[in-house]
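hey so i finaly got around to running the thing on DNA-protecting protein DprA from Aquirufa ecclesiirivi. pasting the sequence first so u can double check i didnt mess up the copy paste, my clipboard has been acting weird all day
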Amino acid sequence: MEEEKVFQIALSLVPQIGIVHARRLISYIGSAKQVFLSTTSTLQKVPHIGPMIAHEIKFNQVLSEAEKIYSDCQKEQIRLFFYLDEGYPNRLKQLYDAPLLLYFKGNVNFQHDKVMALVGTRKATEYGREMTYQIVKDSVDDEVIFVSGLAYGIDIALHQACIELKVPTIAVLAGGFQRIYPSLHIKYAHQMMEMGGILSEHPFHQKPDPRFFPLRNRIIAGMSDATIVVEAAEKGGALITAEYANNYHRDVFAVPGNLQKVFSEGCNRLILKNQATIYTDWETCKEQLNWQSNPDKIVKNKSLLWSRLTDDESQILSLLHQEKVLALDEIAWKLQKGVNQLAMLLLNLEFQGFIKTLPGHRYGLK
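ok and heres what it spat out for the 3d tokens, dont ask me to read them lol
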């Protein structure tokens, strides 16, 4: 296992390989170690792996760097999650652009029932900070994990509120753990270790880079059931996170703001364009996500038999029986059906009491 981890790190370091190519190589060849042990001719037999990538894998000196990174992770008690590992966040794993490898330090269960992203402007107003605190305070009894980016403004207000109220929170970084940015927030990163932690797709020594911040936002959105945008200008990182969440078919909520304030424009526009549901209060948000303590149960009609289901409905139930829980887009891909057609089938099965809707547009058997 230790040796395979080194090869997994090395695979993530190969220049120009990218997430999709790396996954394709693992799928065809079997493991990261086997990828590096394969000949260039074998590598080039994998679809879309040309001479350039094959050469980079065989002759780039990434293994020695990977060994050092692994050693540093051991010393710093940093856990590594390859995308095929059981501990890798399930919500993230199903996405086409999910990181190949995650570095994590802290104490939290990524597969927790309720995970919420909360983001906003770096230039938060008092209203934005108050709303952030109120959201966390109202959620205390619901055992939610909050995710954000440790940035100035709304992000750090979220992490501070979680630390004060003893709510688990995860900060996703745009660099390695040795170079936490901004440095003023290092103390908060350490404080969240017992209930939450820090997460990155970058090795320990990697400096933060402007290119990494939008990519960091896809992790925040992808590992969460929903995203709340508290304050945002017309452009900015918070809106990028909301866009990722919408692309991943995750719920987005926006806190409405003063029409005369610059940092309300982004939230108000999300609501206007139906790219976010208006956030009014925590209880309503929970209802939208099916997070109620005592949700209304759909009564199963015992007289309905599998034999009375259509072929499409039977395929969906068989798939969910095998996979337990799947997202809407994942079911669509596996069954090769359009999302609109599938949504109607799923709604019908839910009314009949065969399946249940879960946060993040996921479905499972009842």
